[in-house]
Amino acid sequence: MKIKRLDILGFKSFHDKVSLDFQQGITGIVGPNGCGKSNVVDAIRWVMGEQSAKNLRGKQMEDIIFGGSECRKPLGLAEVSLVFSTDDGRVPAKYLNYSEIQVTRRLYRDGESEYLLNKSQCRLLDIAELFMDTGVGARAYSIIEQGKIGMILHSKPEERRVLIEEAAGVTKFKARKQVALKKIDVTRQNLLRISDILSEIK
Ligand code: ATP
């Protein structure tokens, strides 16, 4: 999957809608201090499902909504869409027929939020599954911010293993294993209850 376009509206310093097209090769974002370069990276991280306001350099999630400036009033909604091309075929099978995948996240000031996949409402889990094992995603290694290399070098072996597993494509299977184990556990509890009921009837 390759990033094709990023649309930002009402996110942090972006009051008006801004669309960034990512062409072939390397894209660099340059500008004076405080102009919003890091906010672009925050927008990418946020739309891919980041849940921690701290990781987006805020105190609470509402801080990501445009909070007003000298000449503009605060907005009530932040919306970011990230569009991926599917040309390389490295997408989950169910998206192979789409020429692009659009992931959208919205947050209203009252706290209500929405996730959309190709403009249809979805769950955060659907977004997380889409990015699993791709190296993209809110927590994956595709975003290397200041201090991250040092953090990886100084991390515990178990923490480093998470990154290696993501690169090796194991994350999806581990997540599915957890879901399967939970189902087995619920089934065991149900069987236990049934055998209790049966012994009461006898
Ligand atoms: P530097 O080069 O110094 O690292 P930068 O270009 O990466 O700077 P950012 O950190 O992306 O800049 O943007 C900082 C700007 O974003 C500040 O002017 C800040 O006031 C503005 N900003 C952050 N959150 C909001 C918000 N919710 N509403 C309005 N403006 C915001």
UniProtKB/TrEMBL annotation:
Species of provenance: Geotalea uraniireducens (strain Rf4) (Geobacter uraniireducens)
Official protein name in the record: Chromosome partition protein Smc
Entry domain remark: Contains large globular domains required for ATP hydrolysis at each terminus and a third globular domain forming a flexible hinge near the middle of the molecule. These domains are separated by coiled-coil structures.
Family label: Belongs to the SMC family.
Protein's cellular compartments: Cytoplasm
Function of the molecule: Required for chromosome condensation and partitioning.
Membrane-spanning intervals of the chain: none
Shown chain mapped onto the complete sequence: 1 to 202 of 1176
Binding site for ATP: P32, N33, G34, C35, G36, K37, S38, N39
Subunit structure, as described in the record: Homodimer.
